[in-house]
Design a protein that fits this description.
The complex is a heterodimer of chains A (167) and B (152). With 167 residues, chain A is mainly beta. Chain A is 14% helix and 44% strand. Chain B is mainly beta and 152 residues long. In chain B, the strands form three sheets. A five-stranded antiparallel β-sheet of chain B has the order 1-4-11-8-9. Chain B has a four-stranded antiparallel β-sheet with strand order 3-12-7-6, with no helix packed on it. Chain B has a three-stranded antiparallel β-sheet with strand order 10-5-13, with no helix packed on it. In chain B, strand 6 and strand 7 form a beta hairpin. Chain B is elongated. The relative contact order of chain B is 0.27. Classes of the chains: A mainly beta (167), B mainly beta (152). The interface between A and B is large, with 34 and 63 residues. Strand 1 of chain A pairs parallel with strand 2 of chain B, so a sheet runs across the interface.
Chain lengths: 167, 152
């Protein structure tokens, strides 16, 4: 019994020492993840200018989306990704000091290069949600109407249409 | 008396390590999330970003001295074995206690740091920068960040 008591006492002493050592060099850890989702950059090209051709004083002229004179932007980006369009639009075309009103904007976006079968929208500064095609393409068609006055001076009138695409 | 020895011994076995374990707790709270990044454009998350910075929390005795070791990746792993470099700047680590008056302290997460605690509960935040190549394959990338806390 004495032997047994000594053995247990020795074991207890050892345990106490081990306990103290653990307290002085206690270590613990945890992990988190670092994450990112890579998407392809957006590339926008003004592919086709809007062209009203000849217009006449007092005669309103509209360009439909399916007309040859419709404007077109070609966009590439991340396949099937959501994005937004926004436009900076002129209210007039300019020829020197003379101006020609332009408005009634129309638009369509399509994953395929076609002015039909896509989604119609009204170009504006406000965001328009769009989606890239499975191959990462997006085509945007733009039409509008010019309204020459009956006294509209002759000349070549131009303006800029700017489209911005963001994820 | 013999009957009491095993009980006493078992008690010692339980009491020895248990208080030590309860003194230090480390938890991962929030991932370091870069969100959507564009190929060719580096993206940085600061340690003070309230929603995208990585966050750990640890609990240790107030006034104790602890050593922080962060195990950091050099790249995130993506689809088809693609990798994307990730870097950590010299002030991308931030530690702050939760006790009133605790002062946030920036530190270099690439080096271990010894810190005298003024709070029992402490937050460690982590920022970083990913640098996708111009031809970086699209997809989701991730890696593991580990915080090891040692009471000294």
């Amino acid at each position: 019994m004495q032997t047994s008591f000594k053995a247990v006492t020795a074991a207890m002493a050892t345990l106490v020492v081990l306990g103290s050592a653990t307290l002085q060099a206690q270590t613990n850890n945890a992990s988190i993840s670092a994450t990112a989702v890579v998407q392809q950059p957006i590339n926008v090209t003004g592919a086709v200018n809007m062209a009203f051709g000849n217009v006449f004083p007092g005669v309103t002229k509209a360009i439909a989306l399916t007309d040859a004179g419709a404007g077109r932007f070609d966009v590439t980006g991340q396949s099937a990704a959501a994005a937004n369009l926004s436009f900076t639009l002129p209210t007039t075309l300019v020829s020197g000091a003379n101006t020609l009103p332009i408005g009634s904007w129309t638009g369509e976006w399509n994953g395929a290069n076609s002015p039909t079968g896509g989604t119609n929208f009204t170009p504006a500064a406000a965001l328009t949600p769009v989606t890239f095609s499975p191959t990462g393409t997006l085509f945007v068609f733009v039409g509008a109407t010019v309204t020459p006055a009956t006294t509209q001076p002759a000349g070549t009138y131009t303006g800029s249409v700017q489209m911005t695409v963001t994820y | 008396m013999n009957r009491h020895f095993p009980v006493l011994l078992l008690g010692m076995l339980g009491l020895g390590p248990r208080p030590a374990t309860a003194q230090l707790q480390v938890s991962g709270i929030r991932n370091l999330a870069f969100g959507t990044v564009i190929a060719g454009i580096p993206t940085t998350v600061t340690p003070t970003d309230p929603s995208r910075s990585g966050q750990f929390e640890f609990i240790a005795p107030t006034n104790s001295t602890v050593r922080l070791d962060l195990t950091l990746p050099t790249a995130l792993q993506g689809p088809s074995a693609a990798t994307m470099p990730i870097n950590f700047g010299s002030s991308d680590g931030l530690i702050v206690g939760t006790a009133p008056g605790s002062v946030p302290t920036r530190f270099n997460p690439k080096s271990n740091r010894t810190y005298k605690l003024t709070s029992a509960r402490n937050e460690v935040f982590l920022g970083g920068t990913v640098s996708p190549a111009i031809n970086q394959p699209a997809g989701s990338y991730s890696a593991t960040v580990t915080l090891t806390v040692t009471i000294q």
